[in-house]
Design a protein that fits this description.
Distance between the termini: 24 Å
Structural class: mainly alpha
Shape: globular
Order of helices and strands: HHHHHHHH
Radius of gyration: 16 Å
Helix content: 55-70%
Number of strands: 0
Number of helices: 8
Largest sheet: none
Strand content: under 5%
Length: 200
């Protein structure tokens, strides 16, 4: 999934960057969740894997200096990982792959590489991922207390994103906290749901 470079308006670049960092906070735990032996082996064999995970963690720190340069560097690593698979994988590997893909899309949105009129809007990619997780939980008999748990969670976080200003304020820090909590929930729920699935 690659898009021609668009152009992020300078005045909303800080907001786009904050949205990307919130996405890293909630989807990076799935990337490193250990639910797929195939994905983990690919990561382990990738040069700079340790630095990659360290950078993902750094981006979720409220005080971290993050600009287009840092996001483009992350995009380079993500692109290489996703291209290694060639096509969307099946089985457990689907989840860390799609989580990495969503992070890539958010970073492209922040750097201006993802056109605002892309064929599939970014919110729809997120909704698809959350819906897929919800269906996996239902198939595995895991009840998190309400139907479509992650679909509803993403809708709530999207509402919080719309209030971002691009400033390092209390709202942004609270959103990062919420995103980190969501990431832990994603990783925990998928680990439980996939525990009984046969290895790839």
């Amino acid at each position: 999934m690659r898009f021609l470079r668009g152009k992020a308006q300078p005045e909303d670049q800080p907001v786009r960057g904050q949205r990307a960092r919130a996405a890293v906070a909630r989807f990076a735990p799935v990337v490193g969740s250990g639910v797929s032996a195939q994905w983990d082996a690919t990561m382990a064999a990738h040069a700079g894997a340790e630095a990659f995970h360290a950078e993902l963690a750094r981006l979720t720190e409220p005080s971290a200096a993050v600009g287009v340069t840092e996001l483009e560097r992350l995009l380079g690593v993500l692109g290489a990982l996703l291209d290694h698979f060639g096509e969307e994988p099946m089985g457990n590997t689907y989840y860390p792959f799609k989580a990495a893909e969503v992070i890539e899309l958010y970073c492209r949105m922040a750097t201006g590489d993802l056109p605002d009129d892309a064929p599939v809007p970014l919110p729809e990619w997120v909704e698809r991922f959350a819906g897929h997780v919800d269906r996996q939980l239902a198939q595995s008999g895991i009840d998190l207390g309400r139907p479509q748990y992650f679909t509803n969670l993403e809708a709530s976080l999207a509402s919080e994103e719309r209030a971002l200003t691009g400033r390092d304020d209390a709202h942004f820090r609270r959103l990062l906290d919420q995103a980190r909590a969501a990431g832990a929930e994603y990783a925990g729920a998928l680990t439980s749901a996939l525990r009984g699935r046969a290895p790839e």
